[in-house]
Amino acid sequence: MIDGFLALYIFMLAAFTGYEIIARVPVILHTPLMSGSNFVHGIVLVGAMIALGRADTPFEIAIGFIGVLLGAGNAAGGYVVTERMLEMFKSSKPGAGKEAK
Amino acid sequence: MNWLPDFIGHGAIKACYFIAALLFILGLKRMSSPRTARGGIVWAGYGMLLAVLATFFLPDMHNRGLIVAAVLIGVSAAWWTGRRVAMTAMPQMVALYNGMGGGAAAAIGAVELIGYARGLGMLHAVPDTSPLRPEAWAVNALPPALSPVELTLGVLGALIGAVSFSGSLVAFAKLQGWMDRRFVFAGQRAVNMLLLAAAVVAGFMLVLGQASLPLILVFFALALLFGLMMTLPIGGADMPVVISLYNAFTGLAVSFEGFVLGNEAMIIAGMVVGAAGTLLTQLMAKAMNRSIGNVLFGSFGAAGGEAQ
């Protein structure tokens, strides 16, 4: 487990990182960036997998299963929606028909 | 040298989480500039893939079949809806997926809290657990005991996650047009504050060692109800700001639950989103010439006219 104060440092540095990343973002990118950060917290899927992996009683397993379902929805849905939004920012190079796979 | 494969395996999984966290930050950085924005989501996507794959190799995991099934169902359902939905419906889809993330964070908190309460019950059931007899503890320590800090952050993350879950679902329903009337009554703010206070009190009781299944259920019911009631009076025009706020909430909840699980990738990714989302919410509110407080609480009285 992580020591409390070490975690506090990680919290602080990560918060500054998040703040600095967004600090000079143009207005047209507000919504895609919201969607992109929505995808990034889809990492909750990993936590839900660990929680379900630790669950023992049927009740805990049921809640953990729902958690993994929701987390997977967050990650996959967040990715698809963000990718579709950002497709509109395709650089104006020729050959715009190529589809990202 | 029996420990060596485990040691290397453990290090490899931690390294995967580290690379994932790095890719998330670099991806978000690229997403904040129009020129590189498209590549950014791909970088973050590889980070997610790596973290999820690494998690399958964690030792001491039960229910692997269930995990695979839930991941496959969740991913394919969300992928399918996300692909099919019309471009104009994107904001409510973000709200929906964000609510799912909040719900997942709350579910993690619930599993950990219920396991913790079960551990307390087992300790009470067996009075002969003298600290001098470690083997007695070993039997009872089956569900991992939580330290006070872990317990506090776990409860806090569950509260924020549950609020984000029910609030985001209301935001989704409103933007989808399923709920086109604002729900306003006299004294609403007082009722909402009472709900929040009750949820916080229940959370405190959990932290102070009163953890039991009924209390945990009451705690989650109050948190979910508060998220619902807080979002109902907000008009559709303000929804993007509210969704962004709940996005930041979910990030925070994920970060706190990451601490409980000892997962660094969750702590970092969650907190980065929590901070970025908070700033983004302020920027969006400013672009609409409103303050966040105005959006959340100005729904009746002075600001009643502007949000249809």
Automatic annotation (TrEMBL), chain A:
The chain crosses the membrane at residues 6-27, 61-81. It is an enzyme of class 7 (translocase). It is a multi-pass membrane protein. Pfam families: PNTB_4TM. It catalyses: NAD(+) + NADPH + H(+)(in) = NADH + NADP(+) + H(+)(out). Keywords: Cell inner membrane, Cell membrane, Kinase, Membrane, NAD, NADP, Pyruvate, Transferase, Translocase, Transmembrane, Transmembrane helix. Residues 8-90 form the NAD(P) transhydrogenase alpha subunit C-terminal domain. Its main location: membrane. GO terms for biological process: NADPH regeneration. The transhydrogenation between NADH and NADP is coupled to respiration and ATP hydrolysis and functions as a proton pump across the membrane. PANTHER family: NAD(P) TRANSHYDROGENASE, PROTON-TRANSLOCATING NAD(P)(+) TRANSHYDROGENASE. This is proton-translocating NAD(P)(+) transhydrogenase. It comes from Rhodanobacter spathiphylli B39.
